[in-house]
Records
---
Amino acid sequence: MVQFADLVRSTDVAIETAWRARDWGTFVKLWLVTAIGVAVCSLLLILAGGAILIEGNRVYHLFKAGTEGSAAFNAMPLYAGLWNFASPFAAVTAVVGLVSGPFMMIGKGGHSEKTES
């Protein structure tokens, strides 16, 4: 089984190594894959958490109204609202990952020896 923390550490080391070695093809590939991966993870986490809450709400209505009242409870608008929240959130996460990656690497790459005058 892949350990998530080890995967994050190894990916971070690979991105920094590609940056320092000026291997731009590898850097861009890793940068794009990680930005998209973070967006997909955020989308799945929001959808999973929201689905648990929506289904909990449906169970509540089942016990409150009984079997005849639970059929009248339509969860599709709730799922539509969840999707309308999760998809823009994931898009913003991807944009932040795409924009912030090079800026962080530029900040890391500025290790120059300062000479005293």
---
Amino acid sequence: MAGKFRQICVPVGGPTGTGKYFIQIICDPDCRLKRAELEVVETSKLEPEKFLGKRLVVVKEEDDDETEKFQKEEMKISNYS
């Protein structure tokens, strides 16, 4: 697959906390969802050790190794910060 990966980070919030919703897509030429993750930044419902530095995988396409390579590069860049 020879497409271009894109990642979008959307800030989210609710009555008990805030977070970031990460959406990864690939376009070749049409765009499709590859992975979606939710990272809790702060919440009054969980202890920090349960969510800090972690992301909940909401959607994951499991068809190729390119996604894995992309994710490893993103982790190096963001360090989940």
